[in-house]
Design goal:
TPR-like_helical_dom_sf; globular; Serine Threonine Protein Phosphatase 5, Tetratricopeptide repeat; superoxide-generating NADPH oxidase activator activity; NCF2_NOXA1; 75% helix; 4 helices; 0% strand; mainly alpha
């Protein structure tokens, strides 16, 4: 299991990827976070919407 520090780093890097418009990297980083809290799931849904995939956002 990855440390909390690693997961926070991935969330931060994912947020930076969103700011750059790098949807693939953002999804990879957010999805790698274990036991995703609601905030991470919300971020994943938003990235899917921004990437033009509303059906994936609903999952």
């Amino acid at each position: 299991m990855r440390s909390l520090g690693d997961q926070v780093r991935d969330w931060h890097l994912g947020a930076q990827a969103v700011a750059r418009g790098d949807w693939g990297s953002a999804l990879r980083l957010f999805s790698g976070i274990s036991e995703q809290p609601a905030r991470i799931r919300f971020n994943v849904g938003c990235v899917h919407l921004l990437a033009g995939d509303p059906e994936a956002a609903l999952r």
